[in-house]
């Protein structure tokens, strides 16, 4: 058997400019690795290794947690197919898909430039999916009277510029009703701010380029703090589910949960298809 070529290249000059990260000088994987070499690289010292592990370990953690809640009746004495769990299924799919696509994009980004673009597009699309899935869970478990998905119900708040007041009243009500849950809610947004700081500032590698190429660069820290924010979010979604089951309100429907998620996915696919068609049409006219 021929010797396996390492997926890592010593310097950034060996990879295309689109693959180079700001202030990261070495530790890049060479372009056109095989799938086997990509898989082997998770145990090699590259600048993508911890990008993968900082989301793969949380993926396993959330798989275990949602498995307990949904399949082992950790949420109460309700079976996995109970309508009350439909918003949680939507939310779980958003969280797990986000971490899974992030791992996939970072792991296989060196297969080819085209596949890299496709994987990271799906990575960003999964973040949108997660955000909408969170809204579905919030609308049933945390803010059932607000009708977040009802544009008509929200219009009066928007017309009167009352959204900041509405959010503030939510925070103060949560602090009065459940101080522990308020800590999770408040801390989640602190984690998000810290994550945004590292993602935008490119600190610490900006301060000492080359020193943090393998361990400790900003994207790894961004991954860690986004994980912490979702970890805290799961706490208050789970608490909202417990309160929802106690109150026994009208059960969620497939149309109002899974239907919304399928509609989002279909809309995203159609918009991407139209954008691709317009792009190729414009290219053909230019030629």
UniProtKB/TrEMBL annotation:
In terms of domain of life, where is this protein from? Eukaryota
Which Gene Ontology MF annotations are present?
Answer: metal ion binding; signaling receptor activity
Q: Which UniProt keywords apply?
A: Membrane, Metal-binding, Transmembrane, Transmembrane helix, Zinc
Question: Do the record's keywords include Zinc?
Answer: yes
Q: Which GO terms describe its cellular component?
A: membrane
Write out the annotated subcellular location: Membrane
Membrane topology is:
Multi-pass membrane protein
Q: Where are the transmembrane segments?
A: 52-72, 84-108, 120-141
Q: Which residues bind Zn(2+)?
A: 106, 219, 223
Q: Does Nuclease count among this protein's keywords?
A: no
Family classification: Belongs to the ADIPOR family.
What protein does this entry describe?
Progestin and adipoQ receptor family member 9
Q: Origin organism of this chain? A: Aquila chrysaetos chrysaetos
């Amino acid at each position: 058997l021929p010797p396996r070529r390492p997926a890592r290249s010593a310097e950034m000059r060996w990879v295309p400019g689109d693959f180079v990260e700001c202030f990261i000088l070495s530790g890049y994987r060479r372009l056109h690795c095989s799938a086997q070499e990509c898989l082997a690289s998770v145990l090699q010292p590259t600048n993508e290794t911890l990008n993968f592990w900082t989301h793969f370990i949380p993926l396993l953690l959330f798989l275990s947690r949602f498995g307990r809640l949904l399949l082992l009746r950790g949420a109460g004495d309700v079976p996995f197919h109970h309508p009350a769990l439909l918003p949680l299924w939507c939310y779980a799919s958003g969280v797990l898909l986000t971490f899974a696509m992030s791992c996939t994009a970072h792991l296989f980004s060196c297969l080819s430039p085209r596949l890299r673009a496709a994987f990271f597009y799906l990575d960003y699309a999964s973040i949108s999916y997660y955000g909408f899935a969170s809204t579905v869970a919030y609308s049933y478990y945390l803010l059932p009277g607000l009708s977040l998905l009802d544009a008509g119900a929200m219009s009066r708040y928007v017309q009167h510029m009352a959204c900041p007041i509405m959010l503030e009243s939510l925070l103060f009500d949560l602090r009065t009703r459940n101080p522990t849950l308020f800590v999770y809610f408040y801390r989640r947004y602190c984690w998000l701010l810290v994550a945004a700081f590292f993602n935008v500032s490119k600190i610490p590698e900006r301060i000492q380029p080359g020193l943090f190429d393998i361990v400790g660069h900003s994207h790894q820290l961004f991954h860690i703090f986004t994980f912490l924010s979702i970890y805290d979010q799961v706490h208050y979604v789970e608490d909202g589910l417990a309160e929802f089951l106690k109150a026994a309100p009208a059960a969620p429907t497939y149309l109002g949960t899974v239907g919304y998620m399928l509609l989002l996915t279909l809309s995203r696919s159609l918009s991407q298809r139209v954008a691709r068609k317009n792009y190729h049409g414009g290219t053909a006219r230019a030629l």
